[in-house]
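quick one if you have a minute, typing this from the bus. theres a chain ive been looking at and ive put its sequence and its fold in token form underneath. please have a look and point out which stretches look like helix strand or loop to you. anything you notice is useful, everything is just below.

***
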Amino acid sequence: MSPDLDIAVVGAGLAGLAAAHELRRAGHEVHVFEAADAPGGRMRSLRRDGYLMDTGAEQISARGYRATWQLLRRAALGPDDVPRIGRPLAVWRDGRPHNGAGDPRAVLTGAGLPPAARLSLARFLDWSGRHRAALDHDHAEDTPLGTATVAELARRYHPGLYERLLQPLSSAFFGWDAERSAAAPLVGLLLAVGPVSCWRVYRGGMDLLARRLADPLDVRYGRAVETVTDHGTHARLTVDGAALTARAVVLALPAPAALRLQDDPAPEAAGYLAASGYRPMYKVSCALDRPLAPRGGNYVLLTPECEEPVLSCVISDHLKCPDRAPAGRGLISLLASPRRIPELAAATEPDAVRLMTEAAERYVPGLRHALVAAHVHDWPEAMPELTPHALTLRGGFLRRPARCVEYAGDWVAARPSSEGAARSGALAASRVLARLAPHTAHAPLQETAA
């Protein structure tokens, strides 16, 4: 029999769109199935009453984002569409924000570190600089850090380095538990993306690239894929109750979601899939009637766990990019501390918003009085948590033979970012193309038993 589809991609986030573009460029007919009503996945943006709210907290860098910049060029987007943020990153300490986190000059300026911790930062920067080539962010499973967690790495240095830098960074940007999460992906990523001065933002919303990539593709929105099975010569998927066959399927989803769709994933993939857990994110976008922000002009204020029990960071979106709020107004995003997310997610939205905005008054005085509207973004599976156990399984996963069902997502790249998604999409496409190369398009399928 002939397949219903040439290639199916499940998920119209950046990983799925990157894979679909590569496969389409190679001459294949690609159908993308997306359960939501718009592309972007965890990089979606919402537009409400002139406010532009990013559901996640993504920025890209002029460094370390090779695959993303390649996609930007293909989508006819240039540096003007991804302007430099040009604002500092701050850490709260002793009742005020300290700018300069993520800047090499933090050894001199402090950037929120206690004086004794600055020597530890100098030691850490010296060690990571000498081992830079070995701290490859594409191969986090094979670095000098081995299977050390973020907390275990931090214990080699002054406690202040952990409390004021490593813990707030890993918590705010990834939602990680430092006692569980592997240090190698974090350190490799920080080295790859460079200082905050290199960081950029998408003009027009963090979904800009996803929207451009989706435009020329056959993306079927509101189509939920329920099951996927690999039959050896082809794959079968159930979409809204209807069974379809395809020569190949790319599951561009968080690992837990990809597992839920498959009754029996290939043994060489199952271990890493099961070990690739995700951390939730709970974020409140606060539309304000004036452009309030923390002191110091920073666009991100990290609030360390030793200082703040409810929030992990405060983002001044209108400072990050002026188009995020109407002229004369403001937009502030509050990210919850990972330890409080279960409680907040279980509460009513009004109660969760009240708790988070009350905590934010300490950092942005007057926020509650200036609040026009609050929008909650609750992601149960927001960011992959790369544990030491997952890293030990990643090498075998990457060496597995190509099959009818392939995977894409930042968890595949062991890099929790849009760059990880873009790289994984290209990898999935290359594996599909390598497998299909000996066969002509739409070759007859031989049915096999389920």
About this structure: Residues 100-198 form one domain. Confidence is low (pLDDT under 50) at residues 440-450. The two ends are 16 Å apart (CA to CA).
